[in-house]
Predict the 3D structure of the following.
Amino acid sequence: MIRPLPVGIDDFEEIITKGYYYVDKTLFIRDLLDKKGKVNLFTRPRRFGKTLTLSMIRYFFEDTGTEAANKGNRTLFNGLKIRKQGELYTREMCGYPVISLSLKSSKQPDWELAYGCLKEEIGREYLRHRDVTDSLDTAEQQRRFEDIMNLRGSRQDFITSIRFLSDCLYLHWKKKVIILIDEYDVPLENSYFSGFYNEMAGFIRSIFESALKTNPYLEFAVVTGCLRITKESIFTGLNNLEMISILNPAYDEYFGFTQEEVNEMLQFYGLSEKRDRIREWYDGYLFGNAEVYNPWSVMNDVKMMTTDVNALPSPYWANTSSNSIVHNLVENADTSVKSELEDLLAGGTIEKQVHEDITYDSVYDSEDNLWNFLFFTGYLKLVSRRLEQEKQYITMGIPNLEVKYIYSNTIENWFRVKIKARDLSALYRAMQDGNVEIFERELSRLLKESISYMDAKEAFYHGFLLGVLSNMSDYIVKSNRESGNGRLDITAKSLDDSKSPIIIELKAAETFQEMEAACDKAVMQIEEKEYDSWALEEGYTEALDYGIAFFRKRCKVKLKRHRF
């Protein structure tokens, strides 16, 4: 039986015991032990394996309290790379108490609900470790533990809950504690956009200060998130904090799939011939010195092709989030940002100063902050970097077709909304009346306001014009209709039979000087291929045949009235 792919499964034990395909990232543990970082903050885009990594760490290091369970956890790593590294590393297996928390659930619309979810997450971890109460020295410690476990504790109790649980675990095991915190910045991002940022930032800061700053029973901690947040002093005074962002070469190949790993997966599933398609759509990231693929999208795409080898690629990663930051970028873009977006969509690059310490409340303070946010969250890739007068600059581009889809789709949706709010009656009337001069003028005006992606050329202009025509009242607008001896670009037919139907053929000129000839060619193509033959068949006596040529943000319109 072919191994299933673990799409949406981030529990290490489940992946191994149920026979899912696993890309072996266990050497992360070796590097963690070798580097001996006290508090390690890993920032990576969403869906790049952070949660699974923390799950793997927990199953490797945690002493469950029973030999049978520990033996089971050791078995999970049989045949994996970490087991081949020798006794120096394997002796650490099942050797520590572990506190494991995920802050994902705190994505709530108000402070009380978010705080309640954080309490529940902490309470569940207390419940998981309830056996340690046998080792507590005083009735007060017992009461405090039970109050937190049963969610009755005070705000102060929960602020110091991780540190207190560390104390309790050390009393019980006589071993220092490993702390794992997943998606630490989810509550910060959510609270910013929901309007209770200060309350959440204060709470998270207090927890971290207590658990990670002055904790004598901490062996080491691993914290994950999308952004390195320092301005709010979330990690105040943590001199032992190591920041490992996507610019850091340490641990660079452990989040995301390398080319070798993708090749092995495709070979395993008999899909090696799909290598180019996978690379174009989901490759392109550079973390440290490692080139990596988006693991979420690769697994989804391979899984889809195991069912249908001819399945079309899809923007899987794009569909896991609202992509609100891209929406905000597009909606608030000035002339400068529009120009940079156009360069990126055409396959070009932009250069910005690095700001690794951006925060959610400073994203919109400057264009540089916004571009940095997009970079660190996976919407842009690193192309190159340089140092100038102690300032670091990075050159960025769009990583792959999947991310390009996010930008282009967002732009198209933005344009549709913008068009709906515009009065286009002059343009529509000119087109219906055959007034070429006004039609061309109004169309050029809209082009200059748009955000174009010229590498698509005719495809962009086709979509642009469809968006413009989508609000024509009492008209049915169709695209790529089969007619005559081919497929015409756009038709617009009025519900009023007395109005002549409109036939449009588009051309993208290579230079400004070629626009005239391209326009003539478009009109001629309508005639030669009889694109308007359907109008005669439906009883019309006339068709308005438009040839439109585009060059960048300019257009040329020509009309031929075809009377039958």
Remarks:
- The two ends are 65 Å apart (CA to CA).
- The chain has a mean pLDDT of 92.
- The chain has 23 helices and 15 strands.
- Residues 505 and 525 are 8 Å apart (CA to CA).
